[in-house]
Design brief:
Radius of gyration: 22 Å
Structural class: mainly alpha
Helix content: over 70%
CATH class: Mainly Alpha
CATH topology: ABC transporter involved in vitamin B12 uptake, BtuC
Strand content: under 5%
Number of strands: 2
Order of helices and strands: HHHHHHHEEHHHHHHHH
Number of domains: 1
Length: 350
């Protein structure tokens, strides 16, 4: 495995490191610009209550963005993360009932995390054992999870424990303690990704799985781990979604809407759809930015379609900016192949 490290270190030359920070800087500037625009419309945007609500609303999306970034790093997709959150919320509506003492809540917490781990293992098995493309495998999982959630809760019901809600919502001024912990977690994950052998090996597998396997990287184990960790991130995010909803709601779209947003947040934060490149801190920044766009609607009178168009346009722009060099290299390769074929065919036509 040690032979993988030098190859990855060569890919992390200074130009790549600068480009790795670019998404964070751009996201910060965009958030300041959008926030400043909303504040210019009404100063109530910057109230402690609104900023606190904004960060709490961003928590579920931030965790599924971390989940999506984890799978994107290995060159895959996890379309099931939103439906997994929905199912975990439904499980929580049965196991985290209001009025239960704390020691009776522990099994419910473990049940929600267990659902996440089981789904991660199932997704990994579909991809690595049955050789299904990750987008197809997790799309099938999404449908199954959504069906189970609807079977358990045909109509919304159950009440999430108020003490759990208070604990997850507790804040220092406008800053939720949970959000502070999330940022610390993302920063630690980025340090692991860029500064440890195992993190560099993960990136190597995302860049080129075949070459990494030849160099001795445990590619199968890395794929299994990525899908399980991603599902656990989504399961943790479901606790915050449960607090936002306050009840078990399996209505289609309740959680699945987070799936596409998680991809957008990860891409805005610097993730590559081709694998091997992502930032966990960037994914959190992307999630907060998307939550900000929703939050300011009531202040600037934007319609839903405006927000959706802005998100789509920015995602395309991020792909062009962050992956433009890679796309240009691929286009040049295609052009060279076409020229060689044309030159090879020219004598035959003569």
């Amino acid at each position: 495995m040690s032979t993988v490290r030098p190859a990855i270190l060569r890919s992390a030359r200074p130009g790549i490191r600068v480009r790795g920070w670019m998404p964070l800087v751009l996201m910060a500037l965009l958030m300041l610009a959008v926030g400043g625009y909303a504040y210019g419309k009404t100063s109530s945007f910057a109230s402690q209550y609104n900023l606190n609500s904004l960060l709490l609303a961003a928590m579920p999306l931030a965790f599924v963005a971390l989940a999506q970034a984890t799978v994107l790093l290995i060159g895959g997709f996890d379309i099931s993360v939103g439906a997994l959150m929905t199912l975990c919320v439904v499980v929580g509506s049965f196991s985290l009932k209001d009025g239960l003492p704390w020691y009776e809540l522990v099994p419910g917490v473990l049940a929600m995390l267990g659902v996440g781990a089981a789904v991660g293992l199932a997704n990994a098995a579909l991809v690595k054992v049955f050789r299904l493309p990750s987008i197809i495998a997790t799309l099938a999982t999404l449908s199954i999870l959504q069906g189970i959630a609807l079977r358990l809760r045909p109509v919304a019901g159950g009440t999430i424990n108020i003490e759990v809600s208070d604990a997850l919502n507790s804040s220092m001024s406008f800053l939720p303690y949970a959000f502070i912990g999330l940022v610390v977690l993302a920063a630690a994950a980025d340090w692991w990704l860029f500064r440890t052998t195992s993190g560099l090996t993960l990136r190597a597998v995302g860049f080129d799985e075949l070459s990494s396997r030849r160099l001795g990287a445990p590619t199968s184990r890395i794929h299994w781990r990525a899908f399980v960790v991603a599902s656990l991130f989504a399961a943790i995010g479901s606790f915050f979604l449960a607090v936002l909803l306050g009840t078990g709601d399996a209505t289609p779209g309740t959680g699945t809407s987070y799936t596409l947003q998680s991809i957008a947040a990860a891409v805005l934060g610097g993730a590559s759809l081709a694998g091997g490149r992502a930032s966990f801190v960037g994914a959190v920044f992307g999630a907060v930015f998307l939550a900000l766009l929703t939050n300011i609607q009531s202040f600037v009178n934007w319609q839903d379609y405006v927000v959706q168009i802005v998100i789509g346009a920015l995602t395309l722009a991020a792909l062009a900016v962050y992956q433009g060099a890679d796309l240009w290299t691929q286009l040049r390769g295609v052009w060279r192949d076409l020229r060689r074929r044309r030159l090879a065919a020219a004598p035959q036509r003569a």
